Amino acid sequence: MTLAALFTVAAGLRLATGLSVALAQEPAPATPSAAVDPAPQPVSATADLPADMLIDLRRREVNLAARESALREQEALIAAAQQRLEAQLQALQTAEQDLAATMALADTAAEDDLGRLVSVFEAMKPEESAAVFAEMAPEFAAGFLGRLAPESAAAILAGLEPRQAYGLSAILAGRNALIPRD
Hints:
The protein is mostly helical. The chain contains six helices and no strands. Among the domains are: 49-112; 124-175, no CATH class. Helix 3 crosses helix 5 and helix 4 packs across helix 6. The longest helix is centred in the middle third of the chain and has 73 residues, at 51-123.
């Protein structure tokens, strides 16, 4: 019982002291109003975001800037490579034209040489020409015979052994056999 009386007295003291503190304080307004804060503070874009979100956004911004920089570098490298490729293509086209001109010159020179050689065989005595033709490979000899004037070719064939003359005649006759007649 004494214990119960002590608890009751302690509770009463607390109520009495707590009530006086509660009565001494001014009640807080339920909602903030313009009268309480007449000059509103400017709200920054980051005022409502937590610090972690700000750090993440800044990190993303840095990453995007790095990517943009890398893309600009790649674009520059691609443009430089494209210029080098165009220069190489131009050099290749020039080399191709030079090669074609050289080939045409070589073909002309070879044709001129063959023409001179044909003239030489036509100027030789038929027996001497026949002796040279007898030593030539048949396909090579047939090529020369085809270029000679018919009278010179006939005289050379007459100076060859019959088997050689027949072989060269067969090559000459079959040389254009596979050409389309359309």
